[in-house]
Amino acid sequence: MVAVEELLLYFLIVPAIAYAVGALWVRRTMRAIAERQLGFLRETGANARFFVYLALFAVPIVFGIVTYTLAAGIQVTSVSDPVVRLLGVAWALASILTVLSEAWIVVRWKAASFKEMFARVLVLIVIPETVIVWTLTLAIMVVGVLRRSTAEPPISQSSADAVARALEYMIVGTLAAPLTAFLVNRQPVLSVRTFRRVLVWAVVGDILAVVCLVLAFRQIPRT
């Protein structure tokens, strides 16, 4: 049966590792910029904006605590055990891909991410952030199906299989985060003039998550 320690790994430890990797990647990029632009790291605006990015990177950890608290209350049986574990895998993967995709966008636009293009880069990295938000939404629905009172019968195998399919759809949907980052980062220029086109590409990349979320919702048992 899935242990508490395993749930901690999925919902807290993996997101925390992703956060650390994303933060170090962005900070290393800032130092590389400072080697070419003297005084860059001493600019108040640059460091303040770095902390804004860090706050966004922390969203999977915060939501992970919520999901872990909910999942910890599930009475795990031989039928629900694989589903709970799959939920954890989906969350861990969504956390990794969301944070690293956001960091990739920030790193791609280098100094502009901390200066004149900060607001636009912020908008762009919020789009892959929807992946973790929608994974949380599905996770709450999944936990609602798996949690049973003592007066209710345990989840049936058919219901467990349906929930597992929903999670598998969402796992595919998490690929929308790196896809969005790729489509955004392949654009040659980010400026006031080109921002609308870049934003359209970001939305196009996020369509995969929307489709998978709809398919996942259709699998959730109604009773």
Please render the helix and strand layout as text.
Layout: H1 4-36, H2 44-57, H3 59-71, H4 81-108, H5 118-146, H6 157-173, H7 176-185, H8 195-219
Write up this protein:
With 223 residues, this protein is mainly α. It has a single domain (4-219), classed as Four Helix Bundle (Hemerythrin (Met), subunit A) (Up-down Bundle). It has helices at residues 4-36, 44-57, 59-71, 81-108, 118-146, 157-173, 176-185, 195-219. Helix 4 packs parallel to helix 6. The longest helix has 33 residues, at 4-36. The chain starts with a helix and ends with a helix.
Short summary:
The protein has 223 residues and is mostly helical.
Key structural traits:
223 residues, 76% helix, Four Helix Bundle (Hemerythrin (Met), subunit A), 8 helices, mainly alpha, elongated
Q: List low-confidence stretches.
A: none
Domain count, please report it.
1
SSE ordering? HHHHHHHH
The CATH architecture: Up-down Bundle
- Please tally the helical runs, counting DSSP H or I stretches of 4 or more residues: 8
Can you tell me the CATH class? Mainly Alpha
| CATH fold naming | Four Helix Bundle (Hemerythrin (Met), subunit A)
The SS-based structural class is mainly alpha
Oligomer: single chain
